[in-house]
Each structure stands twice: as structure tokens, then as C-alpha cells.
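User: Hey, quick favor. My workstation is busy. Could you predict this chain's structure for me?
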Amino acid sequence: MLQHYLKIAIRNLLKYKAQTLISIVGLAVGFVCFAFATMWIRYEMAYDKHYEGADRLYLFYKNSTVNYNGYDTDARNLLPILRENFPEVEIACGIELWKKGDVDIDGEKMVRVRSLIADSTFMEMFGVRILKGTPDFLWSTDDENEQSNKSVAITDEAARRLYGSTDVIGKEVKHLGTVCAIVTRLPQSSLSFDFWRGGEYNEASANPLLFRLRKDADLSSFLQKLENYTQTLDGKKTTPFKNYRIMKLREYHYSDVNEEKSIKFTYLILFSAIGLMVVFGALFNYLSLFVIRMRMRERETN
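Assistant: No problem, here it is.
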């Protein structure tokens, strides 16, 4: 019986070649578009979700009329305030991430890399480990009179990509310093970096300012406390957190706040919806033709 039905189906498909081709191509294109878009959406939403307490990791941002995307993550001078006056914060770290820096590799070529400036709290917050070398890069300095302290760490992935191996301790990197350590990279993260230099620079500037709330902290109460917090500077009361909002780090990658965002998340959803519509369109087309053929068959038999 099944063999009989298959023969009839194949004969019908061969009899109406144009309609069959349109339906099959439509289904194939629709399924591919929908599957690809769904996988892409999943990939984008998986950024910064694998850290300890990822659901409690936040960053500060505010509206800006200067930046082209309309937002600014520079939370200058907020780090000391957050650490000293908000016990709800488990750990806080101010960083600078230079995303389009050029360095000279072995005097042969200029390579574009991502350079991080952060202190040891970044290591604790994101689980970065030193695989080889010393932590001298955490106390690196830009002072030309202290060349011995101008050190930098490189990730294992960047070392293999730029030098072909992880045996790079002692190599000089122009504009950055001497490689003193190999560290683990941050997989699928908006904060991924190739080189890391420490120092106290980020105490006065943070772009962005990252923090992790304690497990027992109430988010709404914390936000209210931020809004109401005031301090006195030069005899004047100020509200340092007034213009700032917070966002979960895992939402940052596909948000409008991210200056490196290559595509709008809504476009991916639209692309997925279009693929699904093509699938339904092809199915509807095939079912319509099937119904028409049945009616034609009934007329022939009558």
C-alpha cells in the first residue's frame, strides 16, 4: 500500500514539474533561511553567559549626544563610590578596551588588536587565569622612566595567531610593552581582548564600569539607592548616578549601546520571520495545487 502511494505521489510530482520545482525550492530556501537565522540569534544571545553569576553582571551606560549610537558607557569616577558605598555590589571593575589598536609584530607587520586596561578584579570577575609567566602586567605603567614596569599579558589564542606559538615571554610589543604572561582568553565575549595591561588608570576612568551584585541583593532597592545617592563636592550636592542606567552584560552585545554591533538584532528576527513565511508560502502553494488537482479529478470522474 505504501509503495502504491509513493508511486502516485512521484507521478503527480513529475506531471506538474513547474509547480513541484517552485514548491521544493521555496521550502528549501525557507527552511535554510529560518534555520540559519535561528542559529544566528542563538549565537548572539549566548554572549557573556558562561561566567559565574552572569545573570548578576551589569554595566553602566547613559544617553549621549556625541556618540553616533546615542549612548555612552564612560562612567568616570563612579568606581570608588560604588565600591565604598554600596555593599550590595559583590565586585566592581572599571576597564578601558581599545578595540582598534595597531601593534608592531616582530618589526614586520602592523596588526590590529584589542587591548585591555584593567586591574586584578577583572581576573576575579571573569575567571581569567595566568597560564605562564608572572602577574607583573597588573602593575604596568606608562611612565617612560620606569621601563621595567611596562609589561603586558597576551592571551593564548592571540599568541598562537600572531606569533605561531605561546612561547612569547620576553617579546617586545611596540606601544604596549614586554610580554610577561600568557593568560586565558574570554570565549564569546563582548570584552574579549588580545593584550592586557594593568595599572591604576582605571581607578579614575571606566569605560565601561562593570559590577556584580550579591546573590541576596534586591535589584529594585539597589536602583532606588543609586537614584537617591548624593555626595558633596566643593560645598555642592551632586547626584553622580543621576543620568546613568544599568544593563545586564549578557544583553550588551546585541544592544544599541554596543558600538561594535555589526547588525541590528531586529534584522535577525525579521530574517527569521521571512524564512518562516517562505516555508508557509511554499506549503500553502503546494496544498492549493493539491486541492485544485483533486477537484479536477472529481470532475473527470463525474
